[in-house]
């Protein structure tokens, strides 16, 4: 099996001519567009594709992939470019396949609590579309990512502790395979024992096994009542202790988020969160009936108080809640603002919740010893947290420190029974970490990749080495 | 790729000698044991393995599979033999690999709500083991199946509407591959974006991609309060209407089960359910806080009354609830008792809930026209129901009628956006149905099977043709 797609210049010329004929001005080699498509939001160096193709239908994606397969041209699927581990970098050239024009909501089945969308629909667009139905889609990575990108990276976010991640919320997919064939996986049934779970094989495969073009998702009724609360703690350890006890008590929190003092400092400045101290802070949200929400909130607050929480602030009005959660969603940019000009090397791990306090504690000590600036924010109800290392990519010394810190963090999480990434994915940034975590199973992943993409044209150089 | 494992008598003789040396009296060709291992619980004709091997550890499973791979001997994993689509039939001979001796609960992590077990632990054994922890494992196929078998068939049961199926509740696996290599998939983190979701690829693969030897499962706190209720309806349509409205209202029922009048008749006789009419009936269960359960029950009962329910009976004492749910779990045997001497051809489909009333209605008309006796019972909160056709396998006419009815049911479900099996799996009984449902995607399943089991020794002749 060839490690790289083998192609030569005449191949590319012929392929590009065919793509140009198929797509007209939706196929471009313009520098500005190639630059825009060559990188996500994090520290990874950009790798520009040789061209960008904008597809408008599954059928068209199929034709594009067929042409690329014929000439062994790499195809890197692209949504809006908010990934954090270099997923969209065209490390071996080829085309960036932009699905952003595929932005139709195809069918809302309100009575079945499901919806089918094209891959380019963003999560905010979907929820705006659903506004009049009384339903919503809960998965919310910080950025306004596309549903296709979220499926491809197995995204989650603040609501995952209650509603699950893309793994639990994708019912079915339309996928274009590496040879251009179109398949449908799953369907609209809530459960199925029919054959291999291809849906979940493609969810999280980061564009390396197929191009996801349509997604059927579970929806949820907007809760009758929602309330949010914020409180601060004397230490991160105390805050994490409150989280652990809340989860172990089985309180069905919809969201429970930790921001350490550095992260809060960033959010207070960036999002004008006045009236909150720059201390370790938990953001809570409760969903349910009026009575249910009240009961949950009382139980959670009692636990928090036992752990030393103070300064409870409630946000029951929608505008107050939205301001709070917008600040939480902007935590990435708020973190960046702590060191103007720096790039963000953001890493995430996920551990069993009993190990969370120890993992965060050890990581903060490690950060301090390394002399780096790195706020922590986390979906701590799942045992998942992010470390946003603010680095100067021009400083080899800083980059080396960050790389070493990242490696130690990943090893710490794996040693605790956790995983090298809870939600950001592997991309090109965590291939070694994945290999370390998976052990012999990495060979099974590689075998599947070779089977489904024998020419290695689908987002090559990501997830797993073949 | 060879359609069948190629082997000859000398190969088998050598393999059996090696297995005998490895396992001693835990390797047997005794007729009685071969018979016991050659069939599940349903109508499928038995296919006896040539021998039965009892494994006691993952390492031993690995050695057994290595020997079989060397000599191209089929390996059919076996738990307790309660599957319904011929999963354990040794259609191409070889050995039945009995994992029943691997019945240790390896680690309970109560604080993380997870447990790791060997494949031969049964669901009742697990819950008995957990009794003092305040935790439970909710997935409950009617039979006391092994956790390994449940993972392999992506089992679910009455609690799936609230707690999900094995798909949602397996965190990680130890799997022996077709060449004897041992891999671990997933882990103890609640979520992960680390590479291809091998865990869910093996869950539901029915022993055709690997032998599952250890499973890490999610656990749940035993609810503070539980209540159960039973009510009957004038028609199945009315009962299904109540279910649909309950789900659409977002009431978090833990269980909502339909038994039609024929099934109730069987249960009343078989399980001595006195005081219940032989009418279409819903069984409900509610889990939560005292106040939450009361609120849920009131909402659900109001909907049921609107749909014409009558004769509400409550079961709040544990012994009454247990009696009720034991009767529900014994519905399969109760159905069988309606026609002494008959075999059960039980089939299940799952549809979007908005199509459930129409699907059940059309199916009941179809049963009446075919002149078959076939009670219906279902996990209707998921859109999943079972049709238990009581047939005389010696009557080719009856078997042909049942086969045709089954095919029409599957097509009806698929046409409604549903699936050919909600929880019983494919086995050898629904391979054509799966191919029909999957379309081109069946080729991807076959390609994965060929990659992970190139000799086609793992449960050959099941799920997908290669």
TrEMBL record, chains A, B:
Domain of life: Bacteria
SUPFAM superfamilies for this protein: FAD-binding/transporter-associated domain-like (SSF56176), FAD-linked oxidases, C-terminal domain (SSF55103)
PROSITE patterns linked: FAD_PCMH (PS51387)
Cofactor entry: FAD
InterPro entries (UniProt xref): FAD-bd_oxidored_4_C (IPR004113), FAD-bd_PCMH (IPR016166), FAD-bd_PCMH-like_sf (IPR036318), FAD-bd_PCMH_sub2 (IPR016169), FAD-linked_Oxase-like_C (IPR016164), Oxid_FAD_bind_N (IPR006094), Vanillyl_alc_oxidase_C-sub2 (IPR016171)
Domain FAD-binding PCMH-type, residue spans: 45-222
Annotated Pfam families: FAD-oxidase_C, FAD_binding_4
Keywords linked to the UniProt accession: FAD, Flavoprotein, Oxidoreductase, Transit peptide
Residues annotated as signal peptide: none
EC number: 1.1.2.4
Record-stated family: Belongs to the FAD-binding oxidoreductase/transferase type 4 family.
Protein name, per record: D-lactate dehydrogenase (cytochrome)
Organism this protein belongs to: Benzoatithermus flavus
